[in-house]
Every structure is written in C-alpha cells, then in structure tokens.
Amino acid sequence: MHEFSLAKEIERIVAETLAERDGKLSQVNLVVGGLSGVLPDALLSALEFISSEGPLKGAKFIIREEPAVFTCSACSAVTNPLAPIFCCMECGSVKGELTGGTEFYIESLEVEE
Amino acid sequence: MSIKYEVMKNVLATNRLQAAHNRDFLRKSKIYTLNVMGSPGSGKTTLIEALIKELGSSGKSAVIEGDLATSLDGERISKLGVEVFQINTVGACHLNAEMIHRSLSQMDLTDTAFLFIENIGNLVCPAAYDLGEELRMALVSTPEGDDKPYKYPVLFRTADLLVVTKADLLGAVEFNIHRAEDDARKVRQDISIFQVSAMKGEGISELGEHIQTQREKMPKKFP
Description:
Radius of gyration of chain B: 18 Å
CATH class of the domain at 3-67 and 100-112 in chain A: Alpha Beta
CATH topology of chain B: Rossmann fold
Helix content of chain A: 10-25%
Oligomer: heterodimer
Strand order of the largest sheet of chain A: 2-1-6
Largest sheet of chain B: 7 strands, parallel
Low-confidence stretches of chain B: none
Number of helices of chain A: 2
Shape of chain A: elongated
Number of helices of chain B: 8
Strand content of chain B: 15-25%
Mean pLDDT of chain B: 94
Low-confidence stretches of chain A: none
Number of strands of chain B: 8
Order of helices and strands of chain A: HEHEEEEE
Strand order of the largest sheet of chain B: 4-3-5-2-6-7-8
C-alpha cells in the first residue's frame, strides 16, 4: 500500500540523476528483495500511474526480484528460505543471519540519445 | 542509441538519512523513543496510556499520534496531561522519518524521557520505515489470532519487542500463546515477548521495567 510513496521517491531520484545527463529516459531497472516489504505488482501499477507525465514519462520499468538469503552459522550453508520462517534450508537451524532479500534500489537507468 | 547509467541508489535512502538525523537529535536530548506498531484495534493507544502512567515516576512522556484522519486518539492521550502531537496522514498507510522530524520541531520536549510514536494501524507498510526510534514494538491482541507473527513476518522481523495485548482474554478466545511466541522467535530469534492486559493492569510493570532497562543502555549519540 505504501508503493505509491515509493514510486514518487523513485521519480525524485530519477529526475535528480537525469538532471546531469542528456537523452530521453527509456527504462528504469529496479531491484526488489522479497523481504523489503515492497510488492512488485503494486509498485509497477504505481509507477505506471505516475509516469503518464513528469520525469518518468514514457519509461518502461523492469523489476528484478531477489529472494531472501540465509547464511547458516550451524552448517555454513547459504540458502534461500521461504517466508515466513527464516531458517537454514539445509539443516533447519534458525541460528544464522539473513544476508539478502531486504534490498530495494534503483540499479540503472537507460536513456535514448 | 541506448545508454545505460548505473544508479545503485536505495529508494529508502532519504528516509534512512532523516531517521538517522532524528535518532541523533533524540539521543542527544536523552529521549528514549518507541515505535508502536499493530493492527487497528490491537490496543496501541490503551497500552501507551498504561505505559505513560507506569513510567510516570521515572520521567515525562510525550506522544506522536499517527492516524489517517481524526484526532480521537490524541485527545484521549492528552487527558493524561502529556505533550501530544497529532499527525493525520490523510490516507497514507505509514509514518515516515520526515513526518517525525516535522512533529519534533513543533513539540515541547523539555525534560521528556520517553517518546511514544503510535504508528498507523497496519501490519505491512510501517515495516519498511525507520523513524529514528530506539525500540520497535509490535502488538498482537489475543482476539486477532495467534497467526499474526507468521502471516506478517516482514513486520515482526523488524520488531525488538512482541507485546501480546488483551491477555486477560486468553482462554475466552482461540489464541495459542505458545504458537505466537514460537513463530515470533522463528521470524526473529532475539525478540523479547511480553503478555499484558492494559485494562486490568497485568504485565504492565514488567514491560515498563524492560523499557527502563533498555533506556539505560541508550547510546548518547548516533551512530
């Protein structure tokens, strides 16, 4: 539900980045972790809605989803646990750390010259 | 021709920066800040009222009330004679660090020891926003059901504290306290868990004591 605020923040960052560069924005590449609390579909709808005008006008949005990554301190395995329970998928231990899945960033922009 | 520019910017970076600024200000002012999260009706306002009374002997409290609309909760709390600032998000589903910053600048926080931030009733969106708090408290009331930590792991993973509210109804409603606690610990190993009934006053002194102990450990500045 907060994806609209996030889309507005993406618009602001894109405008800031484009201010220093020439060309027409064609694509925005985003990375969304499975534990970031961001719903990719809802974010896409919000981006499509606000891109009818302004800095994002005419751009295409590509979202790469990253799974949760659990690094186990019992058996050292690095696995992708499924929410809601974050544990090692090899040995089942809950001792360890989530080392991925919370990311949410703009990876790159593509512009047409 | 198409050219690709690397950006690598976190979308929430601005919020994190603002949250860090809030945290620095609050620590320097010796104000221990709690972000209170939970569903609508989970008992956030009632718990805050009970904690203000419980902690009264150790210091003054202040409250930032987040609501979509209305100032009903703010009016309730101001009856306790504490500083209250009401934020109306006009439909937005969460508070962010910028809203807290704006509120802080308009509040009288002289001699304030505890600041409670009552977030919007929602178990999804507040998870993504750091407000500059020291303690993130997530509430689950017994009538809501014991499956909430399991169903909303992203939010409970960010919580330092799980408070099971309306514990006086255990037995009257279907709520397996062991299931809720086990699931919460699977979502976050080091989560602290308390059972309270704010209306009956049960468990409030234990929770108050925990908050006091945590406050004594608060660093003097950020980071």
